Amino acid sequence: MNEKIYAFVNDVFHTHRLAGIAIGVVNNSQPVFQGGFGVRSLQSGEPVTSRSLFHLASVSKLFVATAIMQLVERGMLTLYDSPMQHLPYLRITNPYQGYPTLKNLLSHTSGFTDETDYHWDQPEHDEQALERYVRSLDIDFLYPPGQRFFYSNIAYEVLGDVIAKVSHQPFEQFIKMNILDPLGMSSSTHFFDHVPPELAVAPHVALLTLEESKIYPYHRAHAPSSTLHSNVEEMNRWALAMLHQASPPLAASSYTTIWQPRMTVANPDRLKKSVGLGWFLDERHDLKLLFHSGQDVGFSTYFLLAPEKSIGITVLCNTSPAPVEKIAWGILDILLDSEPNPIKPPIMVPLGAMYQEKGLDAMRMQYRKIKTAFPDDFDYDVNRIFDVVSCLLDSNLNSDALALITFGLELCQENAGGYELLARAHFQMGNVQEALIYAQRSLEIEPDNAFLRQQINALLREG
Fold first, then answer.
1. Which end of the chain, N or C, is less packed with Cβ atoms under 10 Å?
2. Residues of CATH 1.25.40.10 domain(s) within the chain?
3. Contact, 400 vs 406, CB < 8 A?
4. From residue 398, how far is each of 52, 212, 297, 385, 424 by CA, in Å?
5. Thinking of the domain 381-462, which architecture would CATH place it in?
């Protein structure tokens, strides 16, 4: 079984040209795989191991949900509390009746909008960073609280500040003392400067070619939503605790609470998907599955549980974008004696270097040649092209982003995401009127994009 997992992951690692990846697998309540592929840094060439510490991105949110439930168990708050009960300085513009509860924040049904700039390039390290961030918020609602799912990182920063205020200690300290230390996750930390250099992993971005990122995704204001660091050995400990419904970290009834479906999540990739408290839920192989993904600049992560089979899977990658979800579900298939679906590399793997060397016209010709000669060997979905565009925009490579958006929209003219990216590119270049035109075009195709509509209204108010 281990040989099959190794071969499967190794193939994806090479065909997708990832920098490094670490895999942790628990099966039948035993760690059965803990290993690394590739390098911690393209510059150093040092290998990824099972002890290498990765930025977990949004997988960090699972620990926030656990911490909230611990405080509920201790009678220090309830899931029906309003966040304003604990954070009187939280400013909310609410055109709807009723206010969100902590349960709404945990399940992404608060109506809160999402963050647009994490300021990773301007990190703050002081203890007041989280409260200062929450005090700076003036939250507009996208939907009435409790009525719609909308993923909000802001909601989790607010939850982190609630944890700090109710426990009377820094958020990171509460997580360490009440979750990480009791589970023996002694290397795991929210603090980037606590990561030993010999275990640190550098972020890499799949731009036109794979590059080490100049920006590391760390900012103490975003510790709750994003900045926990861990390795696959310690994430296997986390998986075992979850599978055993261990106490610590939680009482048995609390696991039932966080894993209860709260709302359906629209997702064309899955027949069934819902959200619990911090966790997402699905079904496959007639099994209930629990999971969370993460992606920040240079990192892609995935954590998956199949409790009925005592299976836990962790995938940590120091490249973004990367097919970590497909890898995790492929490993699950292997453990359940099914053949995993092939994970085709995105067409931008061969096209990126061609664009970089010879330009857009040469890339167009190369695309046609490859698709004719190898129609089944690559993922030709235009959204894989737009994944690269997002990374280019994150790095302010706006001219290259515009070229690839043009190419993508030639392939799929009615792609709302493409026009939204086009609007973002023009906005970053200072072309506000052009940005508004393309944002409106995106809304014509996908009128239910309330977040984009909110951004447009903000631009109109400023203009």
1. C
2. 381-462
3. no
4. 33, 18, 16, 15, 9
5. Alpha Horseshoe (1.25)
C-alpha to C-alpha distance for 411 and 391, rounded to whole angstroms:
20
Answer yes or no: are the C-beta atoms of 63 and 139 closer than 8 Å.
no
Give mean pLDDT, residues 31-56.
98
Q: Are 141 and 92 in contact (CB under 8 A)?
A: yes
Class of domain 1-343: alpha beta
CATH 3.40.710.10 range(s) for the chain read 1-343
**Spatial separation of the C-alpha atoms in residues 211 and 188, rounded to whole Å:** 26
- Tell me whether strands 91-93 and 138-140 are parallel, antiparallel or unpaired: parallel
Amino acid identity, position 417:
G
Q: How many CA atoms lie within 13 A of 208 on its CB side?
A: 18
Q: Which long-range contacts (CB under 8 A, 24 or more apart) does 281-286 make?
A: 284/329, 284/332, 285/332, 285/336, 285/338
Tens-place pLDDT, residues 417-442: 999 999 999 999 999 999 999 999 99
pLDDT in tens, 18-31: 999 999 999 998 99
CA angle at 305 for the pair 275 and 236, rounded to the nearest 5°: 130
Give the pLDDT confidence score for residue 270 in this predicted structure. 58
Angle formed by the axes of helices 324-335 and 2-15, nearest 10°: 160
The answer to whether residues 18 and 186 touch, using CB atoms and an 8 Å cutoff, is no
